[in-house]
Amino acid sequence: REVGTEGKLGGQAYVPGVGGTWKDLTDNVNFMASNLTGQVRNIAAVTTAVARGDLSKKITVDVKGEIQELKNTINVMVDQLSSF
């Protein structure tokens, strides 16, 4: 809930005593939340550096889909700003 509705990255679901499908579901949700946390934190670190004038940083995290588009757009933006 913290990650999905409150925007608090790094949260994990802890459901003691579950097994089978419920454990698999919990593990998968935790894996997705962890991946998303890493991606967002990497993007935030780069955009913070750019905002401070440091154009030497690039987003390097391995991503797919719409996050890949965001990564590419930000990296191109950094390249273009560096050319001035």
From TrEMBL:
> Which PANTHER family does the record associate with it?
HYBRID SIGNAL TRANSDUCTION HISTIDINE KINASE J
Q: Which domain of life is it from?
A: Bacteria
Q: Which Pfam families match?
A: HAMP (PF00672)
> What are the alphabetically sorted keywords of the record?
Phosphoprotein, Two-component regulatory system
Biological process terms in GO annotation? phosphorelay signal transduction system
Q: Name one GO cellular component term.
A: membrane
The keyword ATP-binding belongs to this UniProt entry's keyword annotation: no
Q: Among its keywords, does the record have Methyltransferase?
A: no
Name this polypeptide is given: HAMP domain-containing protein
